[in-house]
Amino acid sequence: MSWLHLGIAVIFEVAVGIAAGKAQGFTKLWRTIGSLVSGARPPSSSASPC
After folding, report:
1. Cβ pair 38, 12 in contact under 8 A
2. What pLDDT was estimated at residue 6?
3. What are 17-48's pLDDT values in tens digits?
4. Angle, to 10 degrees, between the axis of helix 29-39 and the axis of helix 2-22?
5. pTM for this structure?
6. Other Cβ atoms within 10 Å of 19 Cβ, number
7. CA dihedral 26, 27, 28, 33 (to 10 degrees)
8. DSSP string for 10-34
C-alpha cells in the first residue's frame, strides 16, 4: 500500500514540474492553474500510514 502512495505522490510531483515549466513564468493561465492545483494537495495525502 505504501508503494501506491509513493507512486501517486510521484505522479503529482511530475505534474507540478511539467505544468510549472509550461506556464512560462506563470504567464499562461491554465498551466498556472494546473500547477497550483497539482501542488495544492496536502503533503499528508501522499504519506503512508505505516
Report:
1. yes
2. 80
3. 887 787 777 787 887 787 777 777 766 555 54
4. 160
5. 0.59
6. 20
7. 40
8. HHHHHHHHHHHHHTTTTTSHHHHHH
